[in-house]
Amino acid sequence: xxxxxxxxxxSVQAGGSLRLSCAASGxxxxxxxxxxxxxxxxxxxxxxxxxxNLQNAYYGDFAKGRxxxxxxxxxxxxxxxxxxxxxxDTGVYYCxxxxxxxxxxxxxxxxxxxxxxxx
Length: 119
Prior knowledge:
This protein is mainly β. The chain has no helices and eleven strands. The model has no long low-confidence stretch (mean pLDDT 95).
């Protein structure tokens, strides 16, 4: 089955940058949408960014002007470039991909990567 793996998380000071990567493994997987979500302390999981049809990007309000989602270099992969990070960006970031697997359209989720931003 399809599996997603995030990487690139870590600890940075406020104003710093990180680039998260998401790589998909598995056969018979054709991606149409790539998204990133995050879980921050005291909040529900929220949309960070989504790339529809691998072309049109949409962002959560907090991410606009700071974060950029893009198709990755490897097949079935994505990047989330995060600039000007703030302490409130601290949380676990999850990769999601929507596409067609062997049994039809499905959403796939990664396990998450920790991002910590210090003041």
